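Below is one protein, fold included:
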Amino acid sequence: PNAMGGREVGGLANMLACHLDIENPTHRETVQTFWQSPTMPTQQGLKAVDMFDAVESGKIKALWVMCTNPAVSMPNARKVRGAIANCDFVVVSDMFASTDTAKLADVVLPSTGWGEKDGTVTNSDRTISRQRAALPPPGQARHDWDIMCDVARRMGFSTGFNYPGP
């Protein structure tokens, strides 16, 4: 429900936040300064189709899938399912452990759904809306940002992931 919002904050591997060019030094400096980031990639990462090709070839050995079900939603889904099934280590963060992708995972982390999240949502027409949780997270479900920050801190990246909220 928030794919545009993800793009606008830099959630794609081939562009920076605000749809800025990752290979443009001025754009990188602008985003790096705003984010107060000590490092910034200088070239594009893999797009989704290319990423699953890299998983299939063994170039990518670990995969963390969040907020999507690529085993059914990606082009050539059968090939993607095979790549995920043969990947050395797969983590899936999802509301449901029963999705086709979650069934292929080594670890499934329960995450919250849209009705359990606070924050903002950007529609495809780029309208930004405030979102307030209607329900508390069920069971052990956690927000995606909180799961990512927790894993990053445990990996030794505390200073870059010390967010108390969304």
Remarks:
- The chain is about 30% helix and 15% strand.
- The radius of gyration is 17 Å.
- The first helix runs from residue 3 to 8.
- The chain has two domains: 1-45, 46-160.
